[in-house]
Amino acid sequence: MPTPFRYTEPLPPRAATGRVAEVYAQLSRDFGIDKPVTFVVLSSAPEILAPAWALMRESLIAGPGSRTGKELAALGVSLANKCPFCVDAHTMLLHATGDHALAERLARGEQPEKEEHARVLEWGRRTRVPGGLGPEPYPFPRGHAPGYLGTAFAFHFINRIVSALLTENLLPGNVQRFRAVRSLAGRTLARTVRRPARPGEALALLDHPDPGEAPAWAGGTAVGIAYAALLKAAMTGAGLLDADDHDLVEQTLQDWDGAHPPLALNGFPDRRERPGARLALLAALAPYRITDEDVAAWRRPEHTDACLVRLVAYGAFVAVDRVESALNRPIART
């Protein structure tokens, strides 16, 4: 069977020990999918794996707000980031919430019937553009902001990891594109998805219980601690770049307006001259454009799978940080 992994060869999940095994156990219990490849691909860098899972769990699964609404927000994010793997996953998970008609409308490329659903989906799409939401209220109650915002940021990160390091096939042969398959797959997850999850339980998996200042939008919830932990872990990947490449990545993201790069990748560093900066920027802005040649140009004998995961995670989170900084404003009441 073809491997879903591009550029890395994670250890078989059955060989996992320590913190990686603990993350897998919590994933199986609270997400309902046993060792999903979206997280297995991060397993060579446990310091990235644990907070990535924590941010998704504490926002999408255990955070405030309806699961249907947060799945719609995540779907909007995934559409904006051109991540077909994640688009298919969230469509399937809407079946798990019991919203079968909604899931199928979205699978056909149609808009939701309910205005409240359409507004959340569009909100998710617009989060890719830094500052693009405008002054209007968010399409969810103020008290649900940590769940929705945390979900959006989690999937801006996960989309980029998936697009960079996995193939597009959610299931072998892309069989999730068949209605009966995605419906059945969603129904098998229904009990887990609808079961309440206790907030904060993923925080025990983090390297440090106090990873730094949590963002104000998280309102003192576990979502903020998980976000701060992923920020701290992902930014260590900058150490794989020299000072000039690091400055180039940071400045490019400061000037980024949310657009997808042109086909010619104008303005991207040449892979022969600055392969590390090119990889990090592609991970941030267009991870689906990373090629075998890009990875081969960067890799040296000392560059392990863990190094590649850290570099991609760094690029991915620089983009997340740009989006988060633009969204970090007082939340208007609905």
Your description of this structure?
With 334 residues, the chain is mostly helical. Helix content is 55%, strand content 0%. It has helices at 18-30, 37-40, 46-61, 67-80, 84-96, 100-107, 115-126, 145-165, 179-188, 190-194, 222-235, 243-254, 275-285, 292-298, 305-327. The radius of gyration is 19 Å and the shape is globular. Residues 330-334 have low confidence and may be disordered.
Topology:
Blueprint: H1 18-30, H2 37-40, H3 46-61, H4 67-80, H5 84-96, H6 100-107, H7 115-126, H8 145-165, H9 179-188, H10 190-194, H11 222-235, H12 243-254, H13 275-285, H14 292-298, H15 305-327
Please count the beta strands (DSSP E, at least 2 residues each).
0
- Proportion in helices: 40-55%
Q: How would you name the oligomeric state of the polypeptide chains in this document?
A: single chain
Shape: globular
Q: Could you write a compact summary of the structure shown?
A:
This protein has helices at 18-30, 37-40, 46-61, 67-80, 84-96, 100-107, 115-126, 145-165, 179-188, 190-194, 222-235, 243-254, 275-285, 292-298, 305-327. With 334 residues, it is mostly helical. The radius of gyration is 19 Å and the shape is globular.
